[in-house]
Amino acid sequence: MIDYEYKIPADLHEVFTLLKEYGEKATLVAGGTDVMVKIRNTRKAPEVLISLRRLEDLRYIRKNGGYRIGGLTTHRMLELSNLVRTELSALHDAASQVGSVQVRNVATLGGNICNAAPSADTAAPLLVLDAAVVLEGPGGRRRVPIAEFFKGTYRTVKEPDEVLIEFDIPEKMGAFGSAYWKHSRRKAMELPLIGIAVSVKLSEANEIEDSRIALTVAAPTPIRAYLAEDFLRGKPFTDQVLKEAGEIASSSECCTLRTSLRCEAWYREDMIKIFVPRMAKLAAERIKSR
Amino acid sequence: MSEYLYVGKSTPRTIETDKVTGRAVYISDLRRPGMLFGKILYSRYAHAKIKGIDTSKAEKLQGVRAVLTGRDIPEVRVGFLKDQTVLKKDVVRQFRDEVAAVAATSPEIAEEALGLIEVEYEELPAVFDPIEAMKEDAPLVHEIDARGRPVRSNILPLPWKFSAGDIEQGRKDSAYIAKDNVRTTWVNQCCMGTSGCVAEFDMNNNLTLYSQTNVPFLGKQRIVEYLRNIGLKGSRVRVVNPIVGGSFGTKLDTDIYEFIAVQLALRTRKPVKILFTREEEFRALPPRQPAIFEIEQGCDKEGKLTFRKVEAILDNGAYTSWGATTPSVMMMPISSLYRVPNVSFNATCVYTNNIYCQAMRGYGNPQATFAVETSMDSLAEEAGIDPAELRLINCNKPGELTPMRLKITTCPLDRCIKTVQEKINWKEKRGKRNGRGIGMASLIHVAGGARVYKSDGHGIMVKVDQNGNVDVLESGTDQGQGSPTVISQMVAEALGFRPEDVSITLGDTALCLWDAGTHASRHTFMAGNAAIRACDKAKKQILEMAVEHMPEIVEYKLKRKERKDPDFQMPDLDYSLISEPDKLDIKDRYIFPKNQPEHPYFRMEVSEVLTRGLHVGTGESKVVVGEAFYDPPTEMLDREMKGNYSCTYAFGTTAVEVEVDRETGEVKILNLFAAHDVGRAMNPTLVKGQIYGAAYMGVGYGLTEQLQLRNGRVMNPNFRDYKMLTAKDVVPVVPLVIEEPDADGPFGAKGIGEPGLVPTAPAIANAIYDAIGVRITDLPITAEKVLVALKKKAGEQS
Prior knowledge:
heterodimer; A: alpha+beta; Uridine Diphospho-n-acetylenolpyruvylglucosamine Reductase, domain 2; Uridine Diphospho-n-acetylenolpyruvylglucosamine Reductase, domain 3; Enolase-like, domain 1; 5-stranded antiparallel beta sheet; 4-stranded antiparallel beta sheet; 11 helices; about 25% strand; B: alpha+beta; Aldehyde Oxidoreductase, domain 3; Aldehyde Oxidoreductase, domain 4; 3 domains; 5-stranded mixed beta sheet; 19 helices; 30 strands; about 30% helix
């Protein structure tokens, strides 16, 4: 039978005390949309679940120079935020397409990232927005660039006694336009077959000053397509250039595409080729329409 | 249409308030005192010998009350071809084979006990492709048949061979011929409520089975037969429907889990509930029958169809349920959709080690219509005729006798085609090949019962109490389609009462008369025809009562008036106005003389008469009750598979506009118009509800839904990976209700439960062809298939 102890600490201090007490036996749970599903599917539970739901002060979206988003911010908060929609558009695209409204009401950004699924929708936008993950543990706080956060499928660099506090997005990313495409077979309750995020900053001469490309379901973890980014830098923003970037991003030099029951590798490859240009264009349009 | 007071109105559904407020008792809510929970252990192989089963650990688990295997119960064969047993003793032939079952005090304990059962298997060679399975050296799924004779082939002894006219002559008469290979796959019915039942014996071995079946009487008979075969000869069986959360065909057969619940209840002498999880619903419930078609048809220079030849192969799975008889319905569109003189249809059902199949909305018709309507567009292309035009040239007409000997009564198919043509702006939009396209497909379906058993009967009892409340004991079932509302409208209309006076009790074999089942879109048609006949009897009794008692009621009232009002002048009444039942009528709960409906004294509320008639005081008291058993004047299919098996047929046409993304292969439905011949709509809102629901189901069938089987195992047993469409995927469906009252239908009605699904997938496929010039003949039409076809076409051109 599935059985576990359930703790609801009132503040971070209590969380750390509990983590110290139970160590490896404990699992942190935020919205529960991954943890609880996994318990149900595997019919195995940790001995103790430590809920973070009372840490209300970790639910926020702030702009003060850079952008700071609390680890317990729900997808629904991101979806309804004007700031996120206009200035961190890719994150808005991703957050507003996770599960259903009911799921988004409880699922948290921190949870999505700590779960570290290859298909984590919000990972790709955070990658193209250069987010840093702020972790706090008994030894204090540390910052990890999101590109270094994922260690493998469902594995991260977060230590078991650490809590994800917030995401920091540098101020300069506000000048980028960004977009995320979740390619799926229906419009809700879906995992991406492939996810493509692009952020771009264009010069006055319509050249690509800087850009980031990130992919979900293209490797064991969400990844950046660095080679494609390097290719774009300084190039004119034309269909041909974008097409080539898509080809580079979809190549085996950037990703390790797999055939699974959900989708075949060739189709994932094709979709990266199609959506790197489409998302780059959407990102560029979004800068203009600000 | 204003001659009726209640039918034809969108009366709101009645019992649904209990459903939406959570009060309705579904099988998942049902609890009986002392009830135990049953769980089933399924096979770990697609084909294997069972070498041994050790249940000792499971039996020792606290809370476990019984563990059963095939060794613990009589080896009695069940099912349509008696090709399986309840618990498999020696061999498993599919992953869903039931190997053991547990009853325990909670579902969790039962589940845990399953994990403690040790089964030793020896894997056997298996076959998963029906074409492979037909080969001589293929592994045999069954070694012996129901009578114990050795079996030499995986081909079922159930040949479906239909032929009419002369195919070779038809071929000679053809100016154009089209040939297509078409394939459809497994889809799950996706009922909101998962399967389940509660079995309960009394101390005299009489069984009450709370079952979701939509064939309570045939289901009861199967259980009676089973109990008899396991040695319980005198047992009586009562089948009771709880509130049912959807059927779509799943409740047409008696499932193995029901027999298992019966066995567990018998062993423990306690009520036992089995309730499927969603995963079980996907893995262990028979889905829609997949089919492989080779279809060829021709037309002459004018576009008149000359012949149609169809060969079908059906993957039967490991056992036989109602999937194997879907060809009886497939032959309806194949022989009778559009006028075609020469027809040949052969279907071969083949055993494999895949999951076995059952009925689903449309019952073979969606598969066959996908083939026929895909081929119609291919042929139109060959002949250079507009596809809508080709359909109109060959349109079915009232009064015709089809090659299958179906007697077409009313038939507004041409109206359906022309209506959707106009709505979708056919002439303007067709043939652009610019990524946007339109397509259409039609259907024919049984709409006046379906004689698949020797009785296609349906019983109803109507009793009226002294308050004028009407209790209807209705032998059909409500799986969510809203029958109680429609039946209350029809009863109210026939009896002269109001729909709110009528309460419906259905799905109880102890209370209701016999019925062949709520399937084949037959409930409204059958219940309506039975209700009209039963209400005639009840109404006659009320009118006789009125003749008997109205004069004294009137006189009593007049006298009282006289007492109270000294100025009151006694009227001189003509009692001959109410002297015979034929001179009276009832409408809207009032009895009145036909010649003077507004008569100031003879117009009387029914309860006045009913109360007096029940409380006479002289030994002459009467109750009002009418019953009827309606069996329509239809025929069983004869040896040549011909016969008019339904009283009337429904037609319809769906037109779809799609936009196809040539880079991603994605198909977006921009418009969907569904014109359906319903005879007369009894409740327009419910009719539209059926069309909306069926059309969406058809979109899923066409574009996204498939059970993915790998070597016999269902790989996507959940809604994350089984792509049933969500509320966000809603497409703009416009139902168009075409009314042409049918003389045989109650108040002119035809059945409409299934038709909306049937033409949806081929209409989408035809629209995709119009948009991008590639024809996908393999369901579902995924983005990948579209892209592959586009690439292939580009390769051919370059």
